[in-house]
Amino acid sequence: MTSTVLKAGGLTKRYGRRTALADCTLTLPAGRVVGLVGPNGAGKTTLLHLAVGLLAPSAGTIEVLGRRPAADADQLARVGFVAQDAPVYAALTVGDHLRLGAHTNPRWDQRLASERVRALRLDPAQKAGRLSGGQRAQLALTLAIAKRPDLLVLDEPVASLDPLARREFLQGLMAFIAEHDASVILSSHLVSDLERVCDHLVVLVDSHVRVAGDVDDLLAAHHRLVAPRAAAAELPPGLEVIEQSHTDRQSTLVVRGDAPADPAVVVEQIGLEDLVLAYLSQGAATPDPVLEVTR
Amino acid sequence: MIWTTWRQLRTQAWVTAVALGALGVALLVSGLSLARSYSSLGLATCGHSCSQAVAAFQAAAGTGLNGVLQTFAGLIVIVVPPLLGVFWGAPLVARELEAGTHRVAWTQSVTRDRWLATKLAVVGASAAGAAGLLSWAVTAWAHHVDTIDAERVAPSVFAARGVVPVAYALFAFVLGVTLGLMIRRTVPAMAATLGIYAALLFTMTQWVRRVLVAPVTLTRALDVEHLGGIGIVPGGTMTIDANTDDLHGWVLSSRVLLPGGQLFHPAVSSTQCGPDTSIDACRQWLTSQHLVQQVLYQPESRFWTLQWHEAGIFAALAVLLAAFCFWWVRRVA
Questions:
Q1: Could you tell me which of B266, B260, B272 has the C-alpha nearest to residue B240?
Q2: Looking at the complex, does the CB of residue B111 fall below 8 Å from at least one CB of chain A?
Q3: Angle formed by the axes of helices A133-145 and A163-179, to 10°?
Q4: Which of A40, A65, A155, B165 can bridge B135 by disulfide, Cβ–Cβ 3.0-4.6 Å?
Q5: Burial bucket for residue B327 (CB in 10 Å: 0-12, 13-18, 19+)
Q6: Residues whose CB is less than 8 angstroms from the CB of residue B68 and which lie 6 or more positions away in sequence, other chains included
């Protein structure tokens, strides 16, 4: 297995005049749970659709597991996908969906699929169109993981779920990750969802990648500084200011780099959510609320 | 993939099978009774020369179940292909695009090309098969009636017999799939399928079929004793309607010409042929003009030639549209 699960170079997708993803260069390591975060319309879905081969790039290159996405049946078999809103065939039953999976995937794991359906207490004879949102998402996830992919791609899997269904979905996902040696990429506009499951993060704003890296590295490299305005104005070079806010006497900054030794500056740890928010507000041209924060 | 396609077609396939089965039973009952009448009236030996037996047979064919089928069987063969296009073709891809399930289908371990190929092949073959079975049953049922009427090339009968319904069904189905793929919404795609199909079939019937194979031109002396009619506008001109009943086929045009080749439409003359002259005097005068009848028609013997030509055209259109679908499906996300 390659150590890189996704490699994009200058990846661009345009729909007519509108650019959905601009010049995206990205390398995602294998064996991780990668969170793709950004406000609605930032290009998350476009990037994921490019990764699973639903879309073809307008420019640039993308390789998933070392090959062009959806290049052939073999490549398709290695990537599992749950689209946004977890579409299922409304007229088919839960059991039909498993049969569909079994008939269209050579690596299909019927035992895994049946066990999951049993554990979720889904009735195999129930029409998928009558499932609740949470059950539908679980069925779609079952279909995607029972094909035993090397990479699982989930587009906003929990966006439309209530908190309980959301927790159950993420638990099911974590159980799968713990048991099988698969890489996962999931997108969300909620950092709190990703915080629980992700160990690698990509922040996408306005169709550009703003920051990407392992969560631990990102947390270690960023600090929140609280300092008198004068001290804040004389920070050492090499410190990248991501976000800053000022009152009359005091400045609060989110910076990337080694924390300064200046005793006048109070260095605080920064949480993942605040870190992401800092990047998002940096990218925002207008002060609109761009990220929904829930707990 | 084949299983998936079948599973999604199941309901429509059952509805179609039950409807065709019921029609099949009716055709069988009626067909057997027609065959009995045909042989008991001795029509097998005298063809359409024995007018009394023919009249008796036609009366039998026009009453009861026979009569109902006489009215509707042909119509059913004509409307089934567009219905297959509308209800099997248009939703095939449009419904997936509308519900977003194409993102499920295209991320299983089946390439998009194979997905489309399987759908087109399985459902297209079923549609062609259903139309073929229907057309075969109706053609067999109508065998004796068609033998006597000898007008299978006439537009009202032609489209409901032989192989053209199969080609129509195939074309209508692929047309539905194509429009569904492009419009991406089921109901508008269904409406567009019906509209375009109807327009194309009308064009074919009205303008193309008559020249698909060069029609036969028959020039013969006008039979004054058996005219279709004489039209006289007092003080105006006179038109003669020549008889074409003895020609078995689809008459495209019939004209009466002077020996020199000019169209015959003389001014009404009260002395030779007019409201006041006797019909015999009129006939005598017409005979003395040495008039010629010129008929342009597709003879009944051309039935299969025309059938294969037209079926070939629609099958070719279906293939072109299918190729277009493979090209277009790559552009869809």
A1: B266
A2: yes
A3: 10
A4: B165
A5: exposed
A6: none
Chain B residues with CB under 8 Å of A49 CB are: 333
Pairwise CB contact (< 8 Å): B106 & A70: yes
Q: Is the dihedral of CA B220, B226, B228, B231 positive or negative?
A: positive
CA distance B119 to B132: 19
Instruction: Note whether ipTM > 0.90 here.
Output: no
Closest C-alpha among B243, B60, B252 to residue B148: B60
10 Å CB burial of residue A132 (0-12, 13-18, 19+) is: exposed
Taking an 8 Å cut-off on Cβ atoms, the answer to whether B112 and A70 are in contact is yes
pLDDT in tens, B271-320: 778 777 888 888 888 888 899 999 999 999 999 999 999 999 999 999 99
Asked if B259 contacts B182 with a C-beta cutoff of 8 angstroms, the reply is: no
Looking at beta carbons, which residues of chain B come within 8 Å of A90? 99
Residue B288 CB partners (closer than 8 Å, separation 6+): none
Identity of the residue numbered B270: S
Residue B75 pLDDT class (50, 70, 90 cuts):
very high
Tell me if A87 and B112 make a contact (CB, 8 A cut-off): no
Digit-coded pLDDT (tens) for A163-188: 888 888 888 888 888 888 889 999 98
Query: Rounded to whole angstroms, how far apart are CA atoms B103 and B247?
Result: 60
Q: Are B126 and B13 in contact (CB under 8 A)?
A: yes
Report the C-alpha gap between B146 and B307 in whole angstroms. Answer: 15
Report chain A's C-alpha Rg in angstroms.
21
Question: Of B150, B157, B151, which is closest to residue B135 (Cα–Cα)?
Answer: B157
**Mean pLDDT score, B179-192:** 98
Measuring CA to CA, which residue among A159, A275, A157 is closest to residue A210?
A: A275
Cβ–Cβ < 8 Å for A31, A181:
yes
Task: Tell me how far the alpha carbon of residue B52 is from its chain's centroid.
Answer: 29
Do residues A182 and A150 make contact, with C-beta atoms less than 8 angstroms apart?
A: yes
Kindly give the interhelix angle for B164-183 and B90-99, rounded to the nearest 10 degrees: 20
Q: Which residue of B has its CA nearest to A93?
A: B7
Beta bridge partners of A187: A36
Pick among A13, A97, A104, A147 to test the B interface (most B CBs inside 10 A):
A104
φ, ψ for residue B172, nearest 5 deg: -60, -40
The tens digit of pLDDT for each residue in A55-65 reads 999 999 999 99
Residue A47: its pLDDT value, please?
A: 96
Task: For residues B293 and B220, give the distance between their C-alpha atoms in angstroms, rounded to a whole number.
Answer: 5
| Nearest in space to A24 (alpha carbons), one of A156, A290, A241, A202 | A202
How much is the pLDDT for B266?
84
**DSSP element (H, E) containing A73:** helix A73-77
Tokens of A96: 């039909």
Long-range contact set of residues B328-331: C-beta below 8 Å, sequence gap at least 24: B328/B178, B328/B181, B328/B182, B329/B93, B329/B112, B329/B113, B329/B116, B329/B181, B330/A56, B330/B112
Helix axes B51-61, B2-40, angle to 10 degrees: 140
Residue with token string 């975060």: A37
b/e map B241-262, b = 16+ CB within 10 Å = ebbbeebbbbbeebebeeeeee
Q: Tell me how far CA of residue B333 lies from CA of A48, A59, A63, A94, A213, in angstroms.
A: 12, 16, 18, 25, 29
